[in-house]
What does this fold into?
Amino acid sequence: MLIDKLLDEAKLVNAERHETYGDSLGMIGGVAAKLFPNGIELVTPEDFKRYYLIDMIISKLARYLTDFRQPHHDSMLDIGNFAFMLCQLDEEIKLSRLSLSEQNDESINQYDHVMGPHDDESANKATNFMISFPTNIPKKFITRTIQQWSFFKPTITLISKGG
It folds into this structure.
């Protein structure tokens, strides 16, 4: 039966890896716990991608260190690839945030145009603003951006377009 054949093959691969790399899984858990002593909150797809790449780097480093006298060259190449992928992802996230920031600046300009000049005194007289953002913008980014808008000192309610 095919399933039995696949299970036997998987057992062989597992035995080979364990013989080659030892208990790298135990090492990975310990390293991750030290790197993130307070845990880690993964919310956005980008958070999960970044953590995945970090986890792969830790995994490959653990494999490399299982036999320091006979290093696994391919593990180091993998670490380099994952590190470069992480650099690329970080740059994409940075550019995406800059783009969102520019969009927010444009929103402020539109607010100025529609509402006229504003000052802190008139903003403090208002009690609520309702601001609509697209659903793909992380709430933490929106909150930080709103806090940077000095004229929004009253309570702010966030809603998402279409959601």
